Each structure stands twice: as structure tokens, then as C-alpha cells.
Amino acid sequence: MSKAARLVAVCILAGAVLAAPGLAQGSAQIPSLPWIPRSDWINVRRASPPAAGDGVTDDTAAIQACLNRLSDDLLGPKVVYFPPGRYRITSTLQVYKVHGVLLIGCGRDTRIIWDGAEDERMFWSN
């Protein structure tokens, strides 16, 4: 499976459009998904530090901080929410020892843009 095909397959699961060099714009026909965020979701725009979601700012550290807050505890947070925006990632995001996690975006209105090295992964989970 090509890199572009893997990205399209992942974007359908995440509810966000993932972009990378070589992935044609508009290649994924994903609808807008206007979620109403829940209070138990970790919102990347309201976290500390907050993600800018402007497509220019490197949001890697802000998103990683949100992923670090996920908990395997039954009552702990399990969802990271990406409001509409363009989130630029420059190094691998990682999730450690947490089960049942969900990353939610707003369909075509949420773009996660890989701007890291071609030989690196955008996401890793153990």
C-alpha cells in the first residue's frame, strides 16, 4: 500500500484529513463532521500548551501533551478532539500503554499535516 493510500485509510478512521507531500488535495472525499465536543474530551485547542491549528505553527508539542494526558484508568480521558483547523506535525506523535483511545477530527474541516522527515512515522503506539 502506498504512503498516500495509508494516509487516506487512516484519515477515515480518525475523522480528519491527513496530508503529506505527494498526496493530492481533494483525493479523499470526506464530509464535514460538526461534532459537539464533550466535557470529557481533551480539546487540542484548549490544552496547555494549546495547538494553533493554523497550518503554519508546529503543533507537535501541544498535541503530544494532549496524548500524554490520556489515561488507562476507567474514568480517565480517552478522547483527543481536533476542532476544525490545520495541525502541522514535524515529529512522531506517541501514545504509551493506553488502551481504547480515540482521536476525533471534524472530517474535511480538520487537517493533520505531516511536515516531518520522509523516513519517520507520524504516529506510533505501543
Q: How would you explain this protein's 3D organization?
A:
It is a single chain. Helix content is 17%, strand content 30%. The protein has two helices and nine strands; from the N terminus they run H-E-E-E-H-E-E-E-E-E-E. A four-stranded parallel beta sheet has the order 1-8-5-3. A three-stranded parallel beta sheet has the order 2-4-7, with no helix packed on it. The longest helix is centred in the first third of the chain and has 12 residues. The protein is globular, with a radius of gyration of 14 Å. The protein starts with a helix and ends with a strand. The N terminus is likely disordered.
Based on CA atoms alone, the radius of gyration comes out at 14 Å
Proportion of strand residues: 25-35%
- Separation of the first and last Cα atoms: 22 Å
The major β-sheet equals: 4 strands, parallel
Helix content: 10-25%
* Strand and helix order: HEEEHEEEEEE
Q: How many β-strand stretches?
A: 9
